[in-house]
Give the backbone structure.
Amino acid sequence: MTESRSASRQRATKETSIDISLDLDGDGTTEISTGLPFFDHMLDQLGRHGGMNLKVNAKGDIDVDTHHTVEDTGIVLGEVLSEALGDKKGVRRFASVTVPLDEAAVAIVLDLSGRPFLHYEVDCPGMQILGDPPFDPQLVEEFLRAFVTAAGITLHVVKQRGRNTHHIVEAAFKGLARALRDAVRVEGAALPSTKGVL
């Protein structure tokens, strides 16, 4: 494979400034800075377990709310994934995995379909994950919705079990990483669609 499957993008609004670069065929090297330590940890898991080189530099109005930073990061990450995938020729397209973390297990089903859809069936018992600032686990759904919409992928995330909020969220991110790693793998030259387009 000679073509590079990488992309970079910047997005600036009155609320956030996001700069992301992604190499799908990397070695899992990450550089993450969002001002939200737990979110940094989750994005690091995404890159490392996804086998992707991922750089994220996000600055946002986290003194107002962390929502803008998390959602806008999802938008830009989805855009760079879509660009890096190009015409998607030869990719496996579909992937599914269930990932455990101690007592938690989360199932991920993914399709690089070109049709944005998120089914998110995850309830977390804790209100916030401690940190400075703390992380609201409800923002995971907002991040994923922004990500799948911008990337044009179908994603189902279903909690099978779990009591610890940190474990549940981390299992979801690791599962997404492993599913992406599998779905973007190139194993031929044909486009995996009867429509002739993804």
Summary: The CA atoms of residues 91 and 186 lie 4 Å apart. The helical segments are 37-50, 67-85, 139-151, 165-183. The mean pLDDT is 95.
